[in-house]
Structure formats: structure tokens, C-alpha cells
Amino acid sequence: MPLSPILSLRDLKTHFFTRRGVARAVDGVSLDLRPGETLGVVGESGSGKTVTSLSILRLVPPPGRIVSGEILFEGRNLAVLPESELRAIRGREISMVFQDPMSSLNPFLTIGDQVAETLLVHRNQGERLSRRDALRRAAEVLGKVGIPDPASRLDDYPHRFSGGMRQRVMIAMALISNPKVLIADEPTTALDVTIQAQVLDLFERIKSEFHTSILLITHNLGIVAGIADHVAVMYAGKVVEYAPTEELFRNPRHPYTLALLKAVPRPGDPNQTVAPIPGSPPDLMRLPPGCSFYDRCPFREDRCKEEAPPLESKEIGQPREPKEPKEPREPRHLARCWVDVTEPRT
Ligand SMILES: Nc1ncnc2c1ncn2[C@@H]1O[C@H](COP(=O)(O)OP(=O)(O)OP(=O)(O)O)[C@@H](O)[C@H]1O
Ligand code: SF4
Ligand SMILES: [Mg+2]
User: Fold this and answer.
1) Regarding the domain with residue range 7-93+177-276, which homologous superfamily does it belong to in the CATH classification?
2) What is the mean pLDDT of the chain?
3) What does the pLDDT read at residue 34?
4) Cβ-count burial 11-32 (b if 16+ within 10 Å, e if not)
5) How far apart (Å, rounded) are the C-alpha atoms in residues 59 and 56?
6) Is 174 helix (H, G, I), strand (E, B) or coil?
7) How far apart are the first and last CA of the chain?
8) Which residue minimizes the CA distance to atom 4 of ligand 1?
9) Is the pLDDT of residue 199 over 60?
10) Which residue among 86, 130, 152, 318 has its CA within the 20 to 30 Å range from the CA of 222?
11) Cis peptide bond prior to 63, omega within 30° of 0
């Protein structure tokens, strides 16, 4: 039997109620994150990745709010949990590395104080944890995320750290409470390629050392290729494709995923062309009645304009044999498209 998910989104809708109208930023997202797995969420800018992740911890700023759906974490629905109970989960059982690490660190506080603070804020009532112990633990976690000689860096301020090192500090802050789920929103975007590779290695280590389940958000399919077990592709507030990573790359079943894959640069390939996807995503306040990708889709048919396709199984043949008898059966391959894009086009 497959492991039950540690975190499940069920038909989640988060909308922004603005003067211009209602923006359906997250428009019926269902996702499962299983224990110990890394789930990559990819999609162009504005597809709803950040709003989905902020919704999980009910951190969506006004005029946004969760309209409907469930966020199930260990049997509790976070969408309706009393704020006091949610506070005990935020940063402790589910931690987040935010999209912008530069503005998330306080320039006037030392690195040691900021990392230790996360622990002190979340200590259990009655649990004895001195500031000194918290700082010792901060140094330990900073060492684990690859800060050299961490004990000597505790009194430094953030400006003394490079972009890559600040990103590691953010990750240390998220990990210090040993969360069950880590949500990382574009953790490598601001970094150069070498540092990106180091941060991705770090995520691999987090997975094996801390056994954390990771929701990794990025606009870059190349990044998820190396480290995600499954990938969900988002477009205009919806999941349009979901599959095990290898399967998604080998056998994409949604035209938008195909287009994204064409846009991924292949290092070292002299013949590669980086194809920008023509057109732009639809206005989330005026979503079309049919498929949201219709205007940009080279595979479109008449029915796509009026009828919105459901997210449905696109598995070809039998699922692959499990490598070991006890390994859970590969989850399904889902896509939201009327057309079988593997068929040759005329
Ligand atoms: N504060 C806001 N007010 C109004 N609408 C908003 C607000 N924040 C987000 N949105 C809407 O939600 C949509 C999704 O935004 P989101 O930040 O989740 O995109 P994203 O996929 O994370 O993009 P990026 O790759 O640029 O980070 C936006 O296109 C916008 O329409
Ligand atoms: S449903 Fe139609 S328009 Fe939408 S992605 Fe599939 S083929 Fe393209
Ligand atoms: Mg974002």
C-alpha cells in the first residue's frame, strides 16, 4: 500500500478580492505530499505557486483568502483550524523558506539570534531551553546546512553573508525545529548556478538526514528534475499535470508541460534552442469557460474553447513493476487535457 500523504490539498481555492474583480489565483488545487518525498511544483510566473504555499499555513495576505477546500495535515484541516492551534504547527511542524531570502532576514539582528529565535519561539511550554542551548543548536544546524565554522559566525550580521550563505541561513531557520514538512519557495532563484547546485545538494541531504517531506516550488523544470520524486505543473491556478518526475520528463501528457520542457536549457548541448512559450497566461479575473491554455495551445480543438478539461488519468498501459515487493505502487499520471498529445499530429 502507498504511504498515506502527510499533507493533502483537496480542491483548494484561494481568491483575491480586488476592486477590479476577483482573481482566482488558486482555483481548485488538489495535491498529495507523502512522507519523505520531495514534490516539485512548477509553472510560469503568476500560476499560483506562492499563493498555494502561503495558503497551506494560512499566510495569504488580504485581499486574498481561502474560499473553499481542505488542507489536511495529519488528520487536521488547517483551512479551518483555530489560529492558536495553527500557530503551534507553523514553523514547527511545517516550515517555510520564503521566496525572498534577502527581505526575510532582519539586518539588525545577528545570525545566531535569528536562527536561535526560531527555536525559542517554538519551544514547548515547560520545556527548558536556555538561550545558550538554543545558540549551540543554531550553530549545529548552520553547520549541517554547510556554513563553515558556524560557531564563529553566530555574532555576524546578515550583510556579512553572501546570497548563497543567506539562503542556507534561511534553510537552517526552517529546519531547526525539525519540521515534518518543509515548503521551499524558489529557494535557488537569486543564486548563481554553482551555488544553486550546492543548495540543491543540500536539499538532497535534508531529505536523507532529517527525513523531511519537501514541497519545492520553482519556475524551473531543470531544478526539479534532479531532486523531486513527483512533479505538479501549475497553470493559471490549476494543476494541469502530475506525475512521477522521470515519467513527466519522459512522457509529458499536457501541451503546457511540453512547452515548458522545450524551454529548459540543456547544459552542454550546442544544438539546443531555448524556446519561449508564445503568448501569455489568461487574466485570472476573466478566465475562459474552456481550457485556460487554449489561446497558446498548438494542439487545441474546438471543444477546448468551451469545455474545461478535468484532471484525469493519462497512464499508458500498466504501471511499471515496483523495484522491490514492498515499494508502493507508482502513483498515477494525471493531466488536464482533452487531447492525447502523444498521438502524432497531422
Ligand atoms: N496581493 C495580491 N493582490 C492581488 N492579486 C494577487 C496578489 N498576490 C497574488 N495575486 C494573484 O495571484 C496570482 C498568483 O500569484 P503567485 O504569487 O502565487 O504566482 P507564482 O506562481 O508564485 O509566480 P512567481 O513565479 O512569479 O513567483 C497572481 O498572478 C495574481 O493574479
Ligand atoms: S484541452 Fe485543448 S487547449 Fe487545453 S491543453 Fe489540451 S489540447 Fe490544448
Ligand atoms: Mg511565487
Assistant:
1) P-loop containing nucleotide triphosphate hydrolases (3.40.50.300)
2) 87
3) 94
4) ebbbbbeeeeeebbbbbbbbbb
5) 8
6) helix
7) 42
8) 16
9) yes
10) 318
11) yes
